[in-house]
Each structure stands twice: as structure tokens, then as C-alpha cells.
Amino acid sequence: MRIVLRPNPNQENEHELTLQTPKMQKHMPHLRKVKGSSQLIVNDEPFLMLAAELHNSSLSSAEYMRTVWPNMKAMNINTLLGSVTWEMIEPEEGKFDFAELDEVIRDARSNDLHLVLLWFGSFKNALSTYTPSWVRKDVKRFPRVHVSEAGAVIRTEELVSPFNPRAWEADAKAFGKLMAHLKEIDEAHSTVLMIQVENETGLLGDSRDRSRIANELFEKPVPQALLQHLQQSSENNLHPKFIQRFPLIKSLKAGEATWADAFGRGPAADEMFMADAFSKYISKVAESGKKEYPIPFYTNVWLNVEDDGSNLDTDLPVVVGGGGRPGVYPSGGPCPHTLDVWKYNTAPHLDFISPDLYFHDYESVCIDYRHAGQPLFIPEQRRDEKGARRTWLAYGTYGALGCSPFGIDSELASEAAITRHYGLLASVSDIVLKKQATNPEDVMGFFFDELDEGPNSRLWVRRFGNFEITIGRAFVFGKEGPGAGLIIHLGEGKFLLVGWGFNFLVKSVNPKATFASILHAEERVVSKDGNGQIVLKTGRVLNGDEHRHGEFLMMANEDPDYGGFPIAVTPGCRTMICELEVYDVEEDKDDY
Fold it and tell me: Residue 268: how many CA atoms within 13 Å on its side-chain side?
């Protein structure tokens, strides 16, 4: 039996709108606007990136990567993120060398893997250590950022000044050459899907640059066009964390207000000043590349920590999570409260901005970077089981383009947490993509950590049509365990359950209903049709005892804990995919 997606009668589907022009090359990867977000389109079909990021140096050697490709395939990864550095492709000014990169791309293609290339140009982790030596040595042509230490001592940083046009011109030239070369060798293949422009931009060690030119610019008014944009944008378009920090922004007079007037004297104004500078720099670099080969571009962010630590998901020190002050985390990077400045300055050359997500509360960050319909992509995150469980929330509830555990090439597929998560997600990716495009509210992702890793009592609750569905942690008679997965409303009270370690409970929200229950449940088995397309066929019928006679259905862990109870009452859904139907009834007095 094949799964057929039924439209939700309570929702209106939106037509998909392409962001590109009708003259677009068929094979060029691009973003297509869908309901509330965007999808990545590859070879004219929606594509879900089951991604992971390599260590920083991995793509510098095609020979090394030949030892990596088979292991990545065994992890069920379809897209790898890896860096291309300015110092490697332009070791001498004006002389470009793409030979190693070309080998890497050809090998990725032959292994049926896609790439997202990370441009380590002027900035990587708030430093400039991937620039060519001819840039780093020439401080006259490419001046550095300067920061203030205790006692007003000025220190030179290994960071190219974002206020210097000669630096971005050189960076933009190199990046443009890279993109023109990619168009030449890969446009017909779409091996490379997206580009990250720079990496974790900002300034460490101080809240702003203290160089002479920076000091002069800081005393000038905030650019009039930027301030007018922030003032004229509706509250729905401005990020809530910007509004929270700067509630008086609309009362200022554009063209006269200085950075300190607009954002308050001190680190807050310093950070917004640097955000304006860095975002303009990145925009100039991205613009050069877009002119040559306009596939999707984004940049990433080293996140800040809120003053009260409320956006952390760890009991480690605040500084481990990113720091709570500009300069402890990179000042001027695209954190949630500076995101409006970044989006204004980088449009249309960056398509979106992405969070690196290690120690922060996963869901709150997803919400921050989905604001105003921006697509969600997580280019760096934890690669352990705790991180892998959270990807279901990103893909399910927040319609992520992809998630990307970092440092994946030093893991073995047989031991990597992501292997089984991506394997299961791949089997339902077509269904997820169809729902993302039409009814994203019909998908909910969730996770449950080990008891000693996080909140133990959370229930995930969502209304679907006339039914309220509750997802709770599964256990039999023994210890409650971890879990992860998603549910998809297929319409007409039918649901697809994917994952393990959770219970599915139903309640009717119809005020006339007197009873609600699970009507029927079937295990689904992944198969392929005659065209090689994945289909889900019926396996075992899981009725009666298997769903507690309609009370709830358990998607048990692979090794349920019976707590010593001698009767194994829950065999579990061995494929970890189940389709069920729920129902309610309305009774008149005559029915009693």
C-alpha cells in the first residue's frame, strides 16, 4: 500500500512562488518560496539536505577526502559542508589555483554527494587567519582592527578592518573568481548546492574597533537609509529581540542620531556599529559572487547568550555557550538582536542567515532564525546523540533546509549518532518535503533526552483539525528513555508516526464529541516502486493490544525497559514508521 498525502480540509494551500527569473538554468540550485518559508530546489525538485560539516581543513586535500566519502555515504549523509580558503585559491595575488578543489568536486559527484562550500575569505571565527600571506603582511593596504585593553592600551588584532574598501575589493575579486569557476565546472551537475559567505563574522576582545577611522565613523550619524528602514518596518517584520532592546528607535530623527543616540552609549551601540560595518562588507563580497553564479548564499553566526542565560541548554559556564557581552562573543555578528541590520544591508545578495547551534536552547534559536519567513538552515551543531535527536524538531516543526553536525569526518558510520537518524528521515523525506511546501503546520518534530540530560516532563502538544495530539516520553514498566521523531497529519484524521521512544495520545476538540480513540494502526515498511521511488507499504497491523485498545500508541525504543516484568507486552514498531487513524463520535441522548 502506498502513502497518499491527503490535503488538510482546514487549511488553504498556497501556490509556490519561485524566487528566480524564468530564464534560470534548469540545473542551478535555487530557493523556491513555499508557505511560510522556502525550499531548496535541485534539478527542479525539492531537496532535503541530510547534511554534516567536515573539519576545517578537510577539503584542502582530495587525497584525504577519498578516505572519507564511503564513510559519509554509510552515515546516510547526502550533503557535506566544507571550506574553501582564500589563501589556497589565490596564494599569489592575481594567480588562482582551483586544481585541488576541482578534484574534490569531481570525487563528491562520483560518490553521489552534494557540497555546500564555506568561503573562508577575510573572516573566520572573528579572525582573518585564512587570508593569503600577501594580505596579512600588508597592513598599509589592508589595515587591522584595533582593540582597547585595560589601561587604554591599544592592541592590534589578527582581523582585517571591515571599514577598509581595499580589503573587501580584494576579497570580492577572489570570491567572484571562485563563483565563476564553479559555474563553469558544475552548473550542469549541481554538485555544489549553496555557499556560505565568510564564517562567524565579528570582533572578539572588544565591543568595537578602536582604530582612528572607526572612531571617526562612530561619531557620525547612523546611515539615514538604515535608520529609516528600522523606523518604518512594522513590528511583525522587526525581530522581537531588536524591539525588546531598542524600543525607542522610532522616536529618533534620521540623519542626525549618532550610534550612541540610537542604541545607547556603550557596548550596545558599539555592537550595532560593527554589525553595520561587517554586514556591508559581507554584502560586497556576496554581490561579486552572485553576479557570476547566483546559487543560494548565506552566512552563519556565533550566537550570544542572553543576560539571564535563558537561551542556553547547558549548565556549562556562559562563556562556553558563546558569551554574554559583545567582544566575548563576536561583536557585530548577525545575532538575533542585530539581524534586522544584517538583513537590510545584505539583501538581496545573501538569501538567509544561519545559526551555529551547540549549547543554546534548540527550539528558541529555530524560532529566532525562522522569523519573518526566513528559511532555517543549521550549518553547525553537536554531532552526538543529543544533537542528532534535536534535528527532528528542526526538520519537522521548523521546516529546516538541513542540519549539519560538525566534525563529522572523525566519526565512524557504525558509531555515529546521525547514522540511524538520517537513515530513518531519508525514508520519509519526500513526504516531509511535500508537507513543507503546502501544509507545514501538519508536521511536528520532537525529542526526549536521557533523564539526566534535560527536562524530563515536557509534553509536545499540537492541534490538527478536530484532534489534539499529545506526544509524551515512552516507557513500558521500567526506566523512561530518550526518544525523537516527528508526526505528520495526512488529513482526515490519519497520521504518520516516525521515530522511537514516544507515546501518541489523541483527544477530540469537537465540543459535541463524547469519545475519541485510535481506530486503526499499521506498521509501514520502506520499499521502492518500479521507478525506484521510495514507497511505504503495509507491514504488521498494530491494533488491539498494540495501541492499548485505542488509548495510546507507543513507538517504543529499540530496547524497551520492562523493569523486570516477565511479560513482553510491547513488541514495538520495528520499522519505526507507523500510520494510524483516529476518530471521534457524537452521541445523542438516545445513544446512551
Answer: 14
Secondary structure class of 50 (helix, strand, coil): strand
Is residue 403 a contact partner of residue 391, using CB atoms and an 8 Å limit?
Answer: yes
> At how many degrees (to 10) do helices 267-292 and 165-186 cross?
40
Give yes or no for a contact between 436 and 31, defined as CB atoms under 8 angstroms apart: no
- For 212, other C-beta atoms within 10 Å of its C-beta total 10
From residue 22, give the alpha-carbon distance in Å to each of 17, 26, 28, 33, 265: 11, 10, 12, 15, 48
Per-position pLDDT tens, the chain of length 592 = 344 444 444 444 333 333 344 444 467 999 999 999 999 999 999 999 999 999 999 999 999 999 999 999 999 999 999 999 999 999 999 999 999 999 999 999 999 999 999 999 999 999 999 999 999 999 999 999 999 976 577 899 999 999 999 999 999 999 999 999 999 999 999 999 999 999 999 999 999 999 999 999 999 999 999 999 999 998 889 999 999 999 989 888 878 899 999 999 899 999 999 999 999 999 999 999 999 999 999 999 999 988 766 777 876 666 666 778 999 999 999 999 999 999 999 999 999 999 999 999 999 999 999 999 999 999 999 999 999 999 999 999 999 999 999 999 999 999 999 999 999 999 999 999 999 999 999 999 999 998 766 555 689 999 999 999 999 998 877 777 899 999 999 999 999 999 999 999 999 999 999 999 999 999 999 888 878 777 889 899 888 888 877 788 889 887 777 777 787 777 678 899 999 999 999 888 777 7
Coil, strand or helix: which one is 273? helix
What number of helices (H) and strands (E) belong to the chain? Answer: 17, 24
- What is the distance between the alpha carbons of residues 592 and 590, in angstroms, rounded to a whole number? 6
Q: In degrees rounded to 5, what are phi and psi of residue 583?
A: -150, 160
| Contact assessment for residue 166 and residue 91, using Cβ atoms and an 8 Å cutoff | no
> Is 45 exposed, middle or buried (CB count within 10 Å of its CB: 0-12, 13-18, 19+)?
exposed
What are the phi and psi torsion angles at 490 (to 5°)? -90, -5
Question: How far is the C-alpha of 341 from the C-alpha of 276, rounded, in Å?
Answer: 6
Helix (H) or strand (E) holding 505: strand 502-508
**Cβ atoms of 14 and 28 closer than 8 Å:** no
